[in-house]
């Protein structure tokens, strides 16, 4: 399948490129700069050489018509996977920095596809558990999440702080996508992938550790000793392996039955306390980890929510296995030397 993947420089997208290429799909990925394209090119030289991987520059998804050119290709695209969206809390203006790129980026690409890429049959959008969860309900014991659950965040609440702003950005963008399909009746059907915290190997080249994506920063901070005296609350207690998230994005356009569905992809529960214990056990070189009596970071007392899982692969080994298997804590950042950087 000829696929357009947006946000190729991202943590999840890097794994998605890998799955796409290994499955034999022909990929064009959008990145913001030529430098970012060159980095990916160097990693996948053999695929670039045989014409299976190419690039399109889209510097800012928040601009009207940003994707007008990128959606046009020869041979034409059959599927689009849209992962690009800001996920960070380092913002001055929630609307401009988070909500606009998420919403305009999503509606913008759908408009461009409808206008100029009629051969596209399926669009897969990376949404989030943030678009499902209702923050006011806490852990909501006894509730089973389904596709009907939506974060009820209002525009006003979304403006209150960057965390709300991010959740609002994902909620409004996903809603806008479903509304687009309902109202505009395009040639394509939609699937959304709604992961909770995504962890796993960092395979995309980082310019520096400061550029580490938001979900993995928690692991970095733990290893750096920032949780030594008190472990912060875990927030969402659900996680998923990035490799499964990547598989889900690809399966969502490969499988006809994935049309018109939202997928909450998860591997199960985690707490920040467990995360620290796992690092301690498997990476003895990190000395400043919390002890068993350090306060914070545990599961809530309340009985746990039952989650309605729709995952393409529920059988991945647990979190402990993940960190043993991977080089999660030995980032290969440019100008730094592996794990010594932490
Ligand atoms: P990254 O920050 O690594 O990836 C974000 C991607 O979006 C990058 O390629 C980034 O480009 C691009 N991007 C952001 N803003 C713009 C913009 N204005 N114009 C063009 N490109 C832009 O994070 P993830 O890989 O984690 O996130 C990917 C997707 O997954 C996002 O939609 C995120 O909301 C979603 N998600 C992530 C979860 C997680 O725990 N990681 C959980 C649930 C959902 P650049 O690198 O050039 O900045």
Automatic annotation (TrEMBL):
Top-level taxon of the source organism: Eukaryota
Keywords, sorted A to Z: Oxidoreductase
GO molecular function: oxidoreductase activity, acting on the CH-OH group of donors, NAD or NADP as acceptor
Similarity annotation: Belongs to the NAD(P)-dependent epimerase/dehydratase family. Dihydroflavonol-4-reductase subfamily.
Protein name: NAD(P)-binding protein
Organism: Cucurbitaria berberidis CBS 394.84
Top-level taxonomy: Eukaryota, Fungi, Dikarya, Ascomycota, Pezizomycotina
Part of the whole protein covered: 2 to 343 of 409
């Amino acid at each position: 399948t000829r696929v357009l993947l947006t946000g190729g420089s991202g943590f999840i997208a890097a794994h998605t490129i890998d799955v796409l290429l290994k499955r034999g799909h022909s990929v064009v990925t959008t990145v913001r700069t030529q430098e970012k394209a060159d980095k990916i090119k160097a990693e996948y030289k053999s695929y670039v050489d045989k014409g299976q991987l190419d690039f399109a520059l889209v510097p800012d998804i928040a601009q009207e018509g940003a994707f007008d050119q990128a959606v046009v290709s020869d041979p034409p695209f059959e599927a689009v996977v849209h992962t690009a969206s800001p996920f960070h809390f380092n913002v001055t203006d929630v609307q401009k920095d988070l909500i606009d790129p998420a919403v305009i980026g999503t509606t913008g690409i759908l408009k461009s596809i409808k206008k100029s890429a009629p051969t596209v049959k399926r669009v897969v959008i990376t949404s989030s558990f943030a678009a499902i969860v209702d923050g006011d309900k806490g852990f909501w014991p006894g509730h089973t999440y389904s596709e009907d659950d939506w974060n009820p965040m209002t525009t006003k609440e979304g403006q209150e702080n960057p965390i709300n702003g991010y959740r609002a950005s994902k909620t409004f963008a996903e809603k806008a996508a479903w509304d687009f399909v309902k109202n505009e009746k395009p040639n394509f059907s939609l699937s959304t992938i709604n992961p909770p915290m995504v962890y796993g190997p960092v395979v995309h080249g980082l310019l520096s550790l400061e550029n580490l994506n938001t979900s993995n920063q928690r692991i970095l901070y733990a290893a750096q000793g920032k949780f030594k005296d008190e472990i912060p609350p875990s927030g969402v207690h659900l996680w998923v392996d990035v490799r499964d998230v990547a598989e889900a994005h690809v399966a969502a356009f490969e499988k006809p039955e994935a049309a018109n569905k939202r997928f909450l992809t998860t591997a199960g529960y985690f707490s920040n306390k467990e995360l620290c214990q796992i690092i301690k056990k498997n990476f003895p070189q990190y000395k400043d980890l919390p002890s068993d009596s350090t306060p914070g970071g545990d599961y809530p007392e309340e009985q746990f929510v039952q989650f309605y899982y729709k995952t393409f692969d529920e059988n991945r080994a647990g979190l402990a296995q993940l960190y043993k298997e991977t080089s999660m804590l030995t980032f290969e950042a440019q100008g730094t030397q592996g794990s010594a950087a932490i």
